[in-house]
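WARN no homologs supplied; continuing
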Amino acid sequence: MPAREAGEVFGPRLTLFADVLSVGLATAVACLPVLTAPAALSTACAVLRGAREDRPATAGRYFALLRRRLRTGDFAAGALAAAGVLLLAADLALARAGLPGGAAFSVLAACTGAGAMVAGLRACARPESLTDWRTALRRAARDCVRDLGGSGLVLLAVATAVLCAWMLVPLAFLAPGPLALALTAVDVRRDVEFIP
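OK structure emitted
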């Protein structure tokens, strides 16, 4: 990153941090209708990816890109994600109801849910998600298997975001920014390391 310019109060790293927080707040607002959550997170990743190419990572650019890209496929991805969360919650509730083998089923359901969440989040970080969710999800699923370290990093990023939101509820509105940055970094890391 370039050095601080004359008259600049903060260095470029602190500026990027502020941009990540503003994009996070914009993403939290865009996620409120629930069905727009995958598109909102995907747009945040695209805006933060553009910071590598000296494009501004601002909330204004975020909303402009989100407004241009919202389409039926984005709402379908949101409906699929919401249905998956509801199905997992129902399965875990049934397992806790005292059914035989409920403990083993809970572990299996939680692992399956975590795997699906990682694949979905990695799909949001893929550039293809801006135009084609199927391709993004297919490539993200492949990345989940081939890059286990990256999948572990995604789980850690989600755990950190959840922990921050749990400790201080207002942080829940800022957490999508650092989460999108982590997802983008994992995806860029995959490209840089040439993981087959």
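The chain has a mean pLDDT of 87.
OK
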